[in-house]
Amino acid sequence: MSELMQCTRCGEILPRSKLERMKTGTYRRVCNHCKWLYYVKPSRERRILRELDARHKT
User: Fold this and answer.
1) What is the pLDDT of residues 1-56, one digit of tens each?
2) What span, in angstroms and rounded, lies between the C-alpha atoms of 16 and 36?
3) Is 19 exposed, middle or buried (0-12, 13-18, 19+ CB in 10 A)?
4) pLDDT for 57
5) Which positions ≥6 away from 48 have C-beta within 8 Å?
6) How far is Cα 28 from Cα 26, in angstroms, rounded to an integer?
7) Helix (H, G, I), strand (E, B) or coil at 26
8) Where are the beta strands (DSSP E) in the chain?
9) Which residues pair with residue 6 across a beta bridge?
10) Other C-beta atoms within 10 Å of 24: how many?
């Protein structure tokens, strides 16, 4: 049986499989959906904007 954990961003109680597992074997207390919304998506947008800015400067 998988243990349930609460996401610190959205507050949902989810099984461990829905949380990010780190290299040390512990789980980050942010669900994969919140991780995408708050960390992955903004970093991709920043990278795209940075690349577009570099393209226009040259």
Assistant:
1) 569 999 999 999 999 989 988 999 998 899 999 999 999 999 999 999 999 999 98
2) 17
3) buried
4) 83
5) none
6) 7
7) coil
8) 4-6, 13-15, 19-21, 27-31
9) 13
10) 6
